[in-house]
Specification:
The protein is an alpha+beta fold and about 350 residues long. The protein has helices at about 55-60, 105-115, 120-130, 145-160, 175-195, 205-210, 230-235, 240-245, and strands spanning about 10-20, 25-40, 40-45, 70-75, 75, 90, 165-170, 195-200, 215-220, 220-225, 250-255, 260, 265-270, 275-280, 285-290, 295-310, 310-320, 325-330, 345-350, 355. The relative contact order is 0.12.
Length: about 350
């Protein structure tokens, strides 16, 4: 494989803006995004449709030119450099394989275009097919492969050219759920093995959490939060991030003495007074038939809905002020309580699980 660059910035975006004219009006798809993606990092751009994540990636690739701002690849300003002059490759959801070519020829295509010597070409294609676990399938056509195998061919074709960064635009979107989950782990393994920078665009938060070293959560052309998966999940910067990443219970009001009164109960927010917005994740909450004892957040309510999820039950509990809370309880032999619709219950959790959102 290619020699790795010293640890540093692989990709930098500095106050990048992308504007379009639609029906005579200027529309900003990306509104001043600044990112610094490290060498060898698995970095995800995550957000709903229309948030600007794909446009941001296309500016990195060179398929879109920024209206303002600077794009740098490994310290070099490439803002005005065409895609074929940038040392990056891109993998799309459609794979775009050549249907009449074998797996081997698909992977070797770029090297043949560069007139790579035959010995080196055979060695590099062989190495890459081994990395993506396609050894033995060299002679097959794309139509003879599963969706996951076709995706691996597309990856191998991109990686065999030894780009310094690989850009992936929703590459797993066409796969069924089980295969998509398996390919998430495969992608991370391949990225570790080849050691190059991956920039991954997705609207699927579970994909981003599973694979990424860091995630930029985007909304309306802006980065709402840039952090590790753990920090984004446990300490969301905004109510949008809290709601978009997994399931979250959001509670608001005026806290006094580190206590927020909600729905006939209390939420402990030590060190906070005045107007607050609190998020608590469903799996942090304990469901019980009796009022809990001790220094805990505790809310009484009525079970409005129970959904069996296999590994867990999802409870919707309605408080006296009509606030609805979601609780996940794992289906294990020592589950604290099994509740039915209409049952009166208590929800409780430790103060450390009430995270006060400081952002908007």
């Amino acid at each position: 494989m290619a020699e790795q660059s010293p640890i540093g910035s692989a990709i930098e975006l500095v106050d990048v803006v992308k504007e379009y004219v639609s029906h005579g009006e200027v529309v900003q798809a990306v509104k001043g995004v600044t990112l610094d993606i490290a060498e060898g990092e698995f970095f995800s751009l995550l957000g709903p449709s229309g948030c600007g994540k794909t446009t941001t990636m296309r500016m990195i690739a060179g398929f879109e030119e920024p209206s303002k701002g600077v794009v740098r690849l490994h310290g070099r300003d490439v803002t005005d450099v065409p895609p074929n002059k940038r040392d990056v490759n891109m993998v799309f959801q459609s794979y775009a394989l050549f249907p009449h070519m074998s797996v081997w020829d698909n992977v070797a295509f770029g090297l043949k275009q560069k007139k790579t010597p035959q010995d080196e070409l055979r060695r590099r294609v062989g190495e890459m097919l081994e990395i993506v676990d396609l050894t033995g399938r060299e002679k097959r056509r794309p139509r003879e492969l599963s969706g996951g195998q076709q995706q691996r061919v597309a990856l191998a074709r991109a990686l065999v050219n030894r780009p310094r960064a690989l850009l992936l635009d929703e590459p797993l979107g066409a796969l069924d759920l089980k295969l998509r989950q398996a390919m998430q782990l495969e992608l991370k393994r391949i990225q570790r093995e080849v050691g190059i920078t991956f920039v991954y665009v997705t609207h699927d938060q579970s994909e981003a959490l599973t694979m990424s070293d860091r995630i930029a959560v985007m909304k309306d052309g802006l980065v709402e939060q840039l952090a590790t998966p753990h920090e984004i999940y446990e300490k969301p910067a905004t109510t949008f991030v809290a709601g978009f990443i997994g399931t979250s219970n959001l509670l608001g009001g005026t806290a006094a003495g580190g206590v927020l009164k909600v729905g006939g109960g209390r939420v402990l927010v030590p060190g906070h007074d005045g107007e607050v917005t609190v998020t608590v994740r469903p799996e942090k909450i304990v469901l019980s038939a009796e009022e809990p004892e001790g220094e805990l957040s505790a809310l009484p309510g009525t079970v409005a809905e129970v959904v069996y999820l296999g590994t867990a039950n999802s409870y919707t509990v309605r408080l006296s002020d009509d606030t609805e809370m979601t609780v996940f309880q794992q289906n294990s032999h020592d589950a604290t309580v099994t509740a039915e619709r209409g049952d009166s219950v208590w929800l409780s959790w430790q103060a450390q699980y009430s995270y006060v959102i400081e952002g908007r």
